[in-house]
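FAQ: What does a multi-protein file look like?

Like this. Sequence, then tokens, then the next protein.
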Amino acid sequence: MKRLFSFFRNDLFFSISLLLAIIAVTLGRFSIQDINIKVIATLGGLMLIISGLDSTGILSYFGQVLVKKSLTLRQLIRYIVLLSFFSSMFLTNDVAILTLLPIYLRMTKVIANRQSVLLGSVYIIIAANLGSIFFPFGNPQNLFLYSYYDIPLLEFFYSTGLLAVLSLVLLH
């Protein structure tokens, strides 16, 4: 019991999130049908795959390659942000974030300036969300719009292409 209290006291963000979730479920309208088990299972499976890849050392290898190619922290952040932007077009934004953020955080553990590391994390997340706008399968919202409104593929690219290019320019 003492370890449990220690855990909640040490992880304040989790504790506040749990408290707010309990309040929301208690005061709001909640139905068991609101929980999408398929999505939760898919994300759980994805996290298990990422953890498995991490335990094999593959993710660390890719992180070391990025570090060797980077001369400065700024260049490392630029490389991983661009990787996040382009990989999210094909892997979806969630997968890009869940894959690249742990690699980045592991690579930057030894860096004393944690504010720069935090800023890099924010850029990775922003880049993944901006890069995913280009293809219909980049994020669920695009897939819904593409299929529900039956948008021709070239028209979809025309609509999202300029936004994706502008986003890339602003990120770079």
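And here is the next protein:
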Amino acid sequence: MKLELFEEALCCSTGVCGPSVDENLLRITGIFESLNKINQVEANRYNLSSNPADFTKNELVLKKLQEKGNDILPITLVNDKIVKTGNYPTNEEIQEFTGIVFVTQNSQSSSCCGGNGTC
């Protein structure tokens, strides 16, 4: 399955840079890094300033941008179909799109087993 995110112009490829980091961009960066470790998923982010050619190559994205302007960004595609525009997908939406469940790690323990090393 393929998940693509077409984003507005960001200061760097992830948007997680500069003096004040947007928590939503940090969340999306973490999710995409995790998804890229899964063989069944191809997850790509395209930043308008870093990847302008990818915006023009994708006819669906280009048409939406021409119709609505940059306010339509970010645009989320799943298997080449637009599934969300104007906001980043939530964790729940990404789970729905991919079928992959994200689990929040307990920050009090150093492993998934509560630190007892029995995993």
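Q: Is there any per-entry metadata?
A: Some entries carry free-text notes. For the entry above: Residues 5 and 45 are 5 Å apart (CA to CA).
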